């Protein structure tokens, strides 16, 4: 059978790279020049280039061109980074922003990013990791659903001596490289704002309290409350919300503000409370955390703590590159992105003071 035209182009370019005619870091001819050189269509050239990129032989950078991967020729490096996301909602724009930031940073040092979704399933996460190990990736970025439960999956990577970095969530008992936001200071900012609005009966509502990130936000809330001379008891942490009981507490003025561990929970709470006749923010103020894309587009705009998701992704890829290049050692470096307060309509001064 005749060899497909794209395969002939691919093999010809591979031969040039292996023979040293194209050196590591060299820019390949553009699509039009390759079409003329091989007397084939643009579709054929793009197919050949895509295969070379998927195999880690070249890196394609938008608006710059295609380049021979120097590490590929020198040390059999794939120039591939795997990003494993154990996501609760694959359509959440915050994940897309993290991926975008990581891709942009990876491209700057000629790495391609391969994204795998594992949907909160440890077995699927492990299978994704093994699949990427088989592809000989140079490193992993991992956004885990539960970093404690995923410990055995990390050990699989460690046994293969491949560097990896956790994004957004980490296991405090299993030190590692990490990129996330400053949860503690963000929670202090949010709680102090509610206190500035003359709220003293503030409760913290948790979404997944097993996560270190939520525990850090609760610790920030506790710190701000105590610094203001306000007591914090076990009853101030809501991990399983009884909405009827919460509404009763609001109408009795035992709760005047809620600080939610993330925007998804804050939006759910606003829906549940307004459905039971609670006026927001007149009867209770609600504060979130994340500045999720929907937070400003609700009928009641959500006051929240903004984290820069693209920056988290960029920090993750940059730090992983440092580890791959041997410029960072120790296995316990953490980069925290800054946070800021965004005030909208869901909070107001306590009218009952």
Automatic annotation (TrEMBL):
Keyword DNA-binding in record: yes
Record key words, sorted: DNA-binding, Repressor, Transcription, Transcription regulation
InterPro entries registered for this protein in UniProt: LacI/GalR-like_sensor (IPR046335), Peripla_BP_I (IPR028082), Tscrpt_reg_HTH_GntR (IPR000524), WH-like_DNA-bd_sf (IPR036388), WH_DNA-bd_sf (IPR036390)
Residue ranges occupied by any HTH gntR-type domain in the UniProt entry: 3-71
Record has Transcription as a keyword: yes
Protein name: HTH gntR-type domain-containing protein
Protein's organism: Paenibacillus vini
Pfam family, one: GntR
């Amino acid at each position: 059978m005749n060899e497909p035209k794209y395969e002939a182009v691919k093999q010809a370019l591979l031969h040039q790279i292996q023979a040293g005619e194209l050196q590591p870091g060299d820019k390949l001819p553009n699509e039009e020049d390759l079409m003329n050189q091989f007397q084939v269509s643009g579709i054929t050239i793009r197919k050949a280039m895509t295969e070379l990129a998927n195999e880690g032989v070249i890196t394609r950078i938008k608006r710059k061109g295609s380049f021979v991967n120097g590490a590929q020729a020198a040390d059999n490096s794939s120039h591939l980074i795997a990003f494993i996301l154990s996501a609760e909602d694959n359509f959440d724009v915050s994940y897309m922003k993290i991926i975008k930031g990581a891709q942009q940073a990876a491209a700057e040092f000629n790495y391609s990013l391969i994204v795998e979704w594992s949907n909160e399933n440890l077995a699927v996460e492990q299978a994704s990791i093994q699949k990427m190990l088989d592809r000989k990736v140079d490193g992993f970025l991992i956004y885990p659903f539960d970093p404690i439960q995923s410990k055995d999956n990390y050990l699989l990577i460690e046994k293969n001596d491949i560097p990896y970095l956790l994004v957004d969530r980490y296991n405090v008992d299993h030190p590692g490289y990490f990129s996330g936001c400053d949860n503690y200071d963000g929670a202090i900012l949010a709680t102090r704002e509610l206190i500035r609005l003359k709220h003293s009966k503030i409760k913290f509502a948790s979404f997944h309290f097993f996560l270190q990130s939520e525990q850090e936000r609760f610790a920030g809330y506790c710190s701000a409350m105590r610094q203001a001379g306000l007591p914090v008891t076990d009853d101030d942490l809501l991990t399983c919300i009884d909405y009827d009981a919460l509404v009763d507490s609001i109408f009795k003025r035992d709760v005047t503000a809620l600080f939610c561990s993330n925007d998804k929970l804050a939006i759910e709470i606003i829906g549940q409370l307004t459905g039971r006749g609670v006026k927001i923010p007149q009867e209770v103020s609600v504060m979130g955390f994340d500045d999720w894309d929907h937070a400003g587009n609700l009928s009641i705009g959500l006051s929240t703590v903004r984290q820069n998701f693209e920056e988290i992704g960029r920090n993750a890829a940059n730090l992983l590159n440092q580890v791959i290049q041997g410029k960072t050692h120790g296995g316990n470096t953490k980069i925290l992105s800054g946070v800021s307060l965004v005030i909208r309509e869901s909070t107001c001064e306590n009218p009952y003071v």
